[in-house]
């Protein structure tokens, strides 16, 4: 979603581009949906520390062979620990993107090795300099990351998908990234909040659709909510799915930002606080719920308020229009820094 347009633009300018990913369910399937050719190197290590370490070590070794053979002038990553280490080891300049300083393990393993860090303007420099990068090597763009694809042609042509339910309105719930270290290590979960939505009398009046991240998360959701909610089992393009919803409830970051910038009433139940969410709450595009009662009240109020939904749409259009396209910032950094 973030790199496809940049890769296409670089190729159009005559540059050779290699796109890599670990074998990760959503990345692989979304790349197929979007027509982005990926070279798969390594695998996801799961939620446990040893699994993450072992998978990272294996991937780093395999990626070193691939990148050494490709011999790039510049590496561009979304804060890949293996990409950062391989680029550093091979002496390749590294442009890194990151909008999540709260994911401390990834930041500690990547940010100090970056030649330049690019991030949204809502994240203060001090959130990064503590990881060992100089402020002069940080460039901020006036946008949230989803602007890279929401301002692009694909978004403009995409119509809302039919939710496939029988009730008048649809609530879309996105579960948390449960295997990320900043969640798995602290054993954080949004289960109680999702339980409250599915069990609330609201569920009798609306279709509830749950979008998971991992195969085992899908099975757990089916066992827990299968009779009361529709669990999406395949990987889908999130933009049309969000557009089909009357309310979005997000336990993660990216899709909550997408929903907010698309003007869909959005409630965050993320188990951690982060700068992008704080900005969206201040802007009035996202409401935050930290307990089941507050979530139920917010959901009912947002679903009942037609004027509110129209106002959210207009507000979101203004906010998104004010943002620059991070893809252009990315291309400028690659081409100017490296005189390609």
From TrEMBL:
Coiled-coil regions, chain positions: none
Domain of life: Archaea
Name of the molecule in the record: DUF354 domain-containing protein
Species this chain originates from: Nitrososphaera viennensis EN76
């Amino acid at each position: 979603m973030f790199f496809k347009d940049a890769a296409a633009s670089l190729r159009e300018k005559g540059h050779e581009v290699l796109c890599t990913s670990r074998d990760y369910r959503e990345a692989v399937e979304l790349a197929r949906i979007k027509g982005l050719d990926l070279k798969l190197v390594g695998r996801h290590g799961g939620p446990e520390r040893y699994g993450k370490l072992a998978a990272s070590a294996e991937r780093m070794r395999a990626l070193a062979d691939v990148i050494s053979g490709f011999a790039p002038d510049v590496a561009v990553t979304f804060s890949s620990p293996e990409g950062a280490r391989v680029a550093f080891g091979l002496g390749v300049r590294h442009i890194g993107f990151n909008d999540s300083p709260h994911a401390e393990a990834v930041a500690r393993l990547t940010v100090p090795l970056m030649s330049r860090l690019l991030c949204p303007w809502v994240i203060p420099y001090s959130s990064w300099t503590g990881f060992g990068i100089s402020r002069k090597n940080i460039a901020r763009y006036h946008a949230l990351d989803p602007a890279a694809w929401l301002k692009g042609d694909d978004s403009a042509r995409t119509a809302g998908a039919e939710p496939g339910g029988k009730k008048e309105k649809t609530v879309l719930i996105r579960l948390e990234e449960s295997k990320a270290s900043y969640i798995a290590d602290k054993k954080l979960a949004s289960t109680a909040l999702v339980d409250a939505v599915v069990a609330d009398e609201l569920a009798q009046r609306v279709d509830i659709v749950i979008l998971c991240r991992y195969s085992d998360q899908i099975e757990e959701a089916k066992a827990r909510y299968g009779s009361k909610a529709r669990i999406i089992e395949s990987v889908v393009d999130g933009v049309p799915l969000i557009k089909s919803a009357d309310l979005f409830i997000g336990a993660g970051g990216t899709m909550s930002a997408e929903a907010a910038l698309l003007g869909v009433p959005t409630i965050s139940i993320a188990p951690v606080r982060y700068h992008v969410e704080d900005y969206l709450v201040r802007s009035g595009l996202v409401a935050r719920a930290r307990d089941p009662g507050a979530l139920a009240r917010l959901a009912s109020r947002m679903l009942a308020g037609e004027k509110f939904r129209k106002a959210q749409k207009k507000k979101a259009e203004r906010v998104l229009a004010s943002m620059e396209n991070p893809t252009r910032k990315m291309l400028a950094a690659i081409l100017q820094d490296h005189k390609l």
